[in-house]
Design a protein that fits this description.
The complex is a heterotrimer. Chain A is of the alpha/beta class. Helices cover about 25% and strands about 20% of the residues of chain A. Chain A is built from 10 helices and 12 strands. In chain A, the strands form 2 sheets. An 8-stranded mixed sheet of chain A has the order 6-7-8-3-9-10-12-11, sandwiched between helices. A 4-stranded antiparallel sheet of chain A has the order 2-1-4-5. By secondary structure, chain C is mainly α. Chain C has a single domain, classed as Orthogonal Bundle (MetI-like fold). Chain C has 12 helices and no strands. The chains are: A alpha/beta, B alpha/beta, C mainly alpha.
């Protein structure tokens, strides 16, 4: 079932690959499977990437590509029937896979926080915003009432909301304000890493834009790293440093955002970019990408994108491709098989050759 | 695309829809749609764009006769809808103006095969057909929307189809009734990006080969540009601007249109995005006072904007805007 | 997971391959609905146990004469015997064979269970779903009736009715239990119908021009089958317990053969105090077993319908061929 050859399985390693001390997050060979009656479905297949301090990575893909599962796995929020079946998630050098709930609780929210997709689903509808902030702070040992109130007002001001809304209930706020209060809640302890799962998808385009700008400003002021999962490539295009394109549970392409946008290497990335009608350029007919993503319960033998790829070659259908290095980017495509092989042991991920 | 010179397929005149909200003690009136006058011609795709709360979905439901207008009138091929009283008349209308819904996961009944909706529609609206003829027609419309081989897809259940395919079934259901105008309420918003183009291309094909007009409701200006002939921008229940799609996007007269355009992310546009300071959101219009509803967010608002509600004025041929400040000759520079 | 065959595509169409349902999507009724149901029952241990028990009781109810050769009413045997080869469970203080009584008593109990289960569910369905879908004044009045019935304490009401009717036979019990028991499941069905009301396919049916009654019967109710099955099982369980209870306190027809009446006679003759344990225990155990069968099936159907409730178990991974 494994498609990438010759990487050490976690059981064979004593420790995970030694972490780069500068990196905030190192995800190595992470795999997640869902245990179903009919067998197991691999939703995330050997995904690796690294995030430095203050870096912004956008994870882009369509529904079913595994990006949300990946996010939950990183945040250690998976519930059965999903489980991490391999790989490691090193946050500040420490592997989080396998930590107990108490150990995780110490890390959660203080160093790593999560912003969910829909604030109405994540916020408690029967508690005021202030009460929920207070809950979060008390859970991490902050007892003094002044401290709680002071900090709550401070984070709300940070995201541009009048602190008078601490008394409001979620349904009394507009969609944009709810999402901002989610972000404010994530900022309570100024964590080092904030993980966001499509926080703007329920918002209108103007609110989306202002929220993105807000997030970037906060990042600039407080220096935290961001993982931003979305299906909308154009949204992250102006805001992210790195861009990771996922398809069918695997990394299709990973590299600096501008490079990926200006010259997409993987045919899926190129197809995806072609599928966005332009609002300013010439009005051209577009075709999108024919077909649908594969059934992950029975993935195709070769490259998972082969059935839909305009540049498919015979070898694409026989065996799955590895990730190849091209100009500091990683691409999972046979078109670049003559580039650097995956077994480049002296190279650190993300650094130019 | 030629403008409609004959009687438009559908026309509204100062259409309004209000909702009473609040409890018995504090009766407030929500103005979801106010004084909307629009027209859709033959073989035309008209995009109705706006953010959530702008009233665009309410208009769709008014046109589909799900809601009754609070005031104003809707004319279909010259006939006012208020004159349709009998069940037969209403049935005939809904066959000519069917609706396609937004959510592919709930628009089809999961316990029936996908042929169910089409067959029922045909039974109700084209009773002259025999069962075999109905089935043949169902197969025909499935082919037209690209669900091939039709005979096989007709036997499937909704959960066996992808989101894009389910939306195509929605279009097939509408097409089977031989409509003049399809009301498409955000038909691609919940689909993956790479699938949307296929549906958008389908809409253009329906206009060209089947001669159907489409009211395309969306919040995405880029897709509106891709398919539409005319573009109508709505804000807070009223029409802000309307005109040929290229004109409106290249030369936006209403400051709100400018704001929308500046906020649309376009990866192909060069980097160098200015800081976005507008944090406002479209208001819920409850018991409004006279004046332009955009005035709180508009950098160009003048005194008159606070006193008088602007009416749409035709500034250029076929291109109108409801703004006291907009002028035909000058470029409105509210947001860059 | 649905097994999908690709739809062959015309060139240029984006409809080539159907997308796989996301991991965790519930199995729905399809062409292979029955096969899927059978497989689900076999796989889920609660369902298997419940189904097996129920099947056993059905078998006994259908062919009592084949299983028990003695006449259950005949008081010809020696009294108060213990279990033996001739009398598996012994005899009663009146000289009847307990085994025969148990076996012949199965049929009326099952008739009551299934009868009340079906009738109460149908009434609950019509009232609950109509209330939800029609809304307004209909909802108000129907809900009022439902709530009033719910508030009245059930067992005392049953006692009052049954003692008025006197010597309630099987049919009477079915009617009485149905009329008093539909309200509970009506509430559940109304709640679910309310949550379904805004689904687009219902709006699509309205816009298509369907009449409201058609929508309720054809579009809404079939989507509620798993809840309807659960309501049937709930009502059947309620019927078994309360019918037996009424018979136990003597309001049933004491001359009929049923588990509840057996308990009645056993109690009258102080069976437990005088050491005739089997006379009381056997019918009691049967009532419990049948009730458990319905309850197990109820849990199992919940799990079958909602995968989130299923216990996570590792199966042997089948490799794709």
């Amino acid at each position: 079932m494994s498609s990438v050859p010759a990487r050490q399985k976690p059981s064979e390693q004593a420790d995970p690959v030694p972490a780069d001390p500068g990196a905030v997050l190192e995800v190595n060979d992470l795999s997640v499977e869902y245990i179903m009656e009919t067998g197991s479905v691999v939703a995330v297949d050997h995904v690796s990437f690294e995030l430095g301090p203050g870096e912004f990575i956008g994870i882009v893909g369509e529904s079913g590509c595994g990006k949300s599962t990946l996010l939950f796995a990183i945040a250690q929020l998976l519930a059965p029937p999903a489980r991490i079946s391999g790989g490691s998630v090193c946050f500040r050098g420490r592997n989080m896979v396998g930590l107990t709930e108490t150990e995780l609780a110490a890390v959660r929210w203080k160093d790593l926080s999560v912003v969910m997709q829909s604030a109405m689903n994540a916020l408690n509808p029967v508690k005021s915003i202030g009460a929920q902030f207070a809950d979060a702070m008390r859970a991490h040992g902050v007892r003094s009432k002044e401290q709680i109130e002071g900090r709550s007002a401070e984070v709300l001001r940070m995201v541009g909301i009048d602190p008078v809304h601490l008394k409001s209930y979620p349904h009394q706020l507009s969609g944009g304000m709810r999402q901002r209060s989610m972000i404010a809640m994530a900022m309570l302890f100024t964590p080092e890493l904030v993980i966001m799962d499509e926080p703007t998808s329920a918002l209108d385009v103007v609110a989306q834009r202002s929220l993105m700008v807000q997030i970037k400003e906060l990042q600039r002021d407080f220096g935290f790293a961001v993982i931003f999962v979305t299906h909308d490539m154009s949204l992250v295009s102006h805001f992210s440093d790195q861009l990771m394109v996922m398809y069918a549970g695997q990394v299709a392409e990973l590299g600096a955002t501008r490079a990926v946008f200006d010259s997409p290497l993987h045919p899926y990335t190129a197809g995806l970019m072609e599928a966005f009608p332009s609002i300013r350029g010439p009005r051209l007919p577009l075709t999108g990408i024919p077909g649908s993503p594969p059934d992950l319960a029975r993935p195709p033998h070769g490259c998972r994108f082969a059935p839909r790829c305009p540049k498919v070659m015979p070898r694409c259908e026989t065996a799955p491709p590895d990730e190849y290095w091209v100009d500091g980017r990683r691409v999972r495509c046979y078109l670049y098989a003559e580039a650097y092989s995956p077994q480049a042991p002296n190279e650190e991920p993300g650094s130019p050759p | 695309m030629t403008e409609a010179s004959t009687e438009p397929v559908l026309r509204t005149e100062r259409l309004s829809r209000h909702f009473k909200i609040g409890n018995a003690l504090s009766r407030q009136v929500l103005h979801a749609v106010d004084d909307v006058s629009l027209a859709i011609g033959e073989r035309q795709i008209v995009a109705l764009a706006g953010e959530s709360g702008s009233g665009k979905s309410t208009i769709a439901r008014l046109l589909a006769k799900i809601y009754k207008p609070t005031s104003g009138e809707i004319y279909f091929q010259g006939t006012p809808l208020s004159s349709l009283r009998s069940r037969r008349d209403t049935l005939r209308y809904t066959g000519l103006v069917p609706m396609v819904f937004q959510d592919p996961f709930s628009s089809l009944n999961p316990v029936f095969r996908v042929s169910h909706g089409v067959m029922r529609g045909l039974k109700l609206h084209r009773p002259e057909l025999s069962r075999e003829q109905r089935y043949a027609e169902a197969a025909r419309v499935f082919e037209v929307v690209g669900l091939t081989p039709a005979a096989e897809v007709l036997q499937r259940f909704p959960h066996e189809l992808s989101g894009g395919q389910r939306q195509r079934v929605g279009f097939a259901q509408a097409l089977a009734l031989r409509p003049k105008l399809i009301l498409a309420d955000e038909p691609v918003s919940m689909l993956d990006v790479s699938i949307r183009i296929g549906l958008l291309n389908l809409m253009v094909r329906l206009r060209d080969s089947e001669g159907v007009s489409i009211l395309y409701i969306t919040h995405d200006l880029a897709s509106a540009r891709y398919v539409a002939d005319r573009l109508i921008i709505m804000y807070a229940g009223q029409i802000a601007e309307a005109g040929p799609v290229e004109d409106v996007l290249a030369n936006p007269k209403h400051p709100y249109t400018q704001l929308l355009l500046s906020a649309v992310p376009d990866p192909r546009a060069p980097l160098g995005v200015g800081a976005e300071t507008d944090r406002g959101e479209p208001p819920k219009v409850i018991d409004p006072t006279p004046g332009c509803r955009f005035r709180w967010r508009c950098p160009l608002a003048i005194d008159e904007c606070h006193r008088v509600t602007p009416e749409p004025r035709e500034l250029l041929p076929g291109h109108s805007a409801a703004c006291h400040v907009a002028r035909a000759d000058a470029v409105t520079e509210a947001f860059r | 997971m649905a097994m999908l065959r690709p739809v062959t595509a015309a060139p240029g169409q984006d409809t080539a391959l159907p997308e796989a349902p996301a991991a965790g999507q519930p199995a729905r009724r399809g062409r292979a609905g029955l096969r899927r149901l059978v497989r689900a029952i076999r796989y889920n241990h609660k369902a298997t146990a419940g189904a097996a028990l129920l099947a056993l009781f059905c078998l006994v109810a259908l062919f009592p004469g084949v299983i028990a050769h003695d006449d259950p009413n005949a008081t010809i045997y020696p009294r108060s015997l213990g279990p033996s080869a001739q009398h598996l469970f012994g005899t009663t203080a009146l000289g009847q064979d307990i085994f025969a009584q148990t076996v012949w008593g199965t049929r009326p109990v099952l008739i009551i269970a299934v009868g009340v289960g079906l009738l109460a569910t149908v009434i609950a369905m019509l009232i609950g779903v109509a209330a939800a879908f029609y809304g307004g004044a209909w909802d108000g009045s129907l809900s009022l009736i439902t709530d009033v019935l719910l508030v009245i304490p059930l067992f005392p009401l049953l006692i009052v009715i049954a003692s008025y009717v006197q010597n309630a036979g099987t049919l009477v019990l079915v009617v009485v239990l149905t009329l008093t028991g539909w309200s509970y499941t009506a509430r559940q069905l109304r709640a679910q119908a309310l949550s379904l009301r805004n689904r687009d396919f219902l709006m699509a049916a309205r816009v298509r021009g369907e009449r409201k009654m058609y929508i309720v019967l054809v579009e809404i109710i079939p989507t509620m089958t798993s809840l309807l099955v659960a309501c049937f099982l709930t009502n059947a369980l309620y019927a078994v317990l309360f019918a037996s209870g009424l018979q136990f306190i003597g309001l049933g027809d004491p001359n009929s053969t049923s588990w509840g009446t057996m308990l009645y006679w056993a109690e009258n003759n102080e069976a437990l105090q005088t050491g005739q344990y089997l006379w009381a225990i056997v019918p009691g155990a049967c009532i419990v077993a049948l009730g458990a069968a319905f309850a197990l099936l109820n849990y199992a159907f919940d799990e079958i319908g909602n995968p989130a409730l299923r216990p996570v178990r590792r199966t042997r991974v089948k490799r794709a061929g």
